[in-house]
TrEMBL record:
2-oxoglutarate(2OG)-dependent dioxygenase that catalyzes the conversion of 2-oxoglutarate to succinate and CO(2) in an iron-dependent manner. However, does not couple 2OG turnover to the hydroxylation of acyl-coenzyme A derivatives, implying that it is not directly involved in phytanoyl coenzyme-A metabolism. Does not show detectable activity towards fatty acid CoA thioesters. Keywords: Iron, Metal-binding. PANTHER family: PHYTANOYL-COA DIOXYGENASE DOMAIN CONTAINING 1, PHYTANOYL-COA DIOXYGENASE DOMAIN-CONTAINING PROTEIN 1. It comes from Cairina moschata (Muscovy duck). This is Phytanoyl-CoA dioxygenase domain-containing protein 1. The keyword Iron applies. Its cofactor is Fe cation.
Amino acid sequence: RANMPGAAEKLICDGFLVLEHFFTPEECDSMREQIQGIVAEMEVPPHCRTEFSTKEGEQLQAQGSSDYFLTSGDKIRFFFEKGVLDERGNFLIPKERSVSKIGHALHAHDPVFKQITHSPKVQELGRKLGLESPVVVQSMYIFKVWQFGFPLTPHQDATFLHTEPLGRVMGFWIALEDATQENGCLWFIPGSHTNGITRRMVRAASGASTCVEFVGSEPTYDDSQFIPVPISKGGLILIHGEVVHKSELNSSQFSRHVFTFHIMEAKDTSWSKDNWLQPTPELPFPPLYT
């Protein structure tokens, strides 16, 4: 846990950085209220009711076979928890508890999340970290609902958001309510961002049975190396693109809402054309600095 200055050094050392009380309670509440309105108006065709998963086999089945996921980079789309839909795609529980996440362009299409993403203090933080030409590549609202939520398996963001060279992607993870070990806070392996990556999720060749596939092997991680990183409402965690992190089941009876977005230092950086997420003519990656 750190405050400026010295944050860049700690981020380089550990691969993550905790900044408590970065956003105000009012800013957190405004995001939660905005998402409630979005969910209330949610009308998702049954054929688009895609369950979100971070397990490789389930990713390929649920997301990889669906253009709904692959073309969500410049839209606001809904992804659902496992077990909340019947065979016909109807909700088995209230729809506000059925959503796993909403992504991937809230930062571009919703005024509240756009303002948060480009807020003066986020821009100031980017400059203090030495980012010269950062662009926003995606954003997500994550619900982490209790009872139906699933663990976030150990992973590195660069597996999904690959750049040349590596080290140009960073996640901004905003706790909209207290994140505790009981309701599924993040866990990190400090220093693991220095070991590179061993697998990637890439767009599959045309004609393949899935839209994406994994290349390389998924390493086995030592659970004893992970440390929990609880954080209070309004706190911000900066996440290096290669640091290994996870979250456990939400075993509480409370939610753990989060808004997160990823930025890329665009200067002297190439965004992989194999990434599932691609900028579009309608939505090029917008500059963080306005």
